[in-house]
Amino acid sequence: MTTSKPIAILFGGVSEEGAISAASARNLYKAIDRAWYNPFLVELTKDNTWKVLGEDDAVLIERPLHDLRGLGEGDGHPYDFDMALVLIHGAPAENGQLQPLLEAQGIAYSCCSMKTSCLTFDKQLTKIIAQSVEVRCAKGQSLLREEISTFHCTLDYPVIVKPNESGSSYGVHKVDRKDALNAALRDAGKYSEKILVEEFIVGREVAVGLIQLNKDLHVFPITEIIPVGAFFDYQAKYEGKSQEITPADIDDEVKNVLHQRAKTLYEAFSLQGIVRIDFFVTKEDVFLIEINTIPGMSAASIIPQQCEAYGWSLQRLSNHMIDAALQNHSVNQSNTI
Fold it and tell me: Which homologous superfamily does the CATH classification assign to the domain defined by 139-199?
């Protein structure tokens, strides 16, 4: 009789995105194939402790950050995780801090490496690399939090103000006039030391989901995002204040451009597993918005919608996420001296 493999579904973390992370983890937890895997929800608390949860969220065991696997507990403990589905949005996973700890414990994980995550979490650096492979980005300026009072915007209004290192649209503002800029900069500065001010691009916002398995890069049907407000802010993303159309009604020429640029970015950044890349489509061109290395998996999230349109169940996606993680782990182990 085959014993189901224990899988840790990681959520929580220290960022403002803990509740979103929990919704993603719980949705994926329901989809896991119990014939092969024995999933456990594992919360990373704000004091950097792992809590392995059982029925009704009862805490089965607590472990320190450096020992998710329970190596310090001796032989025979029941929660020996050598595989983790990472659904921690924001820090410490999306910025790459968690990955070396998992690698040190011999745990395969479903998200991008430390190096890639550090790059993509930095929005300004992401733009520089994207432009080097001929993917267009919005024009912009950057400043440090301490420079807010002396900052001079050289862009035409309206502009978008955003933290350089943050997720889920926290601290993101559309600013229509000069006298509203300072307040937006100060709010963005709550979430990141560096702040970006970018031109406001008028166009259709779309999301492209991708996952690589073996040598096949699967590109899901494109989603168009139509926010009720001025742009795809936190309320549009997580409180239902947007219309999401999958597959998007776009012509084949634009679709091919989006597919090609998404594939180019996947390769250029050495992305792994499931990612979502967002773009603006204008009459002029296609512009990169951001790369999401740990996209949402809640019932309201875009990737599950795209999977359904692609003909995959969420269970099938979770199987592919696990397979891809194990393959990447095997490659990384073989490259270790």
Answer: ATP-grasp fold, A domain (3.30.1490.20)
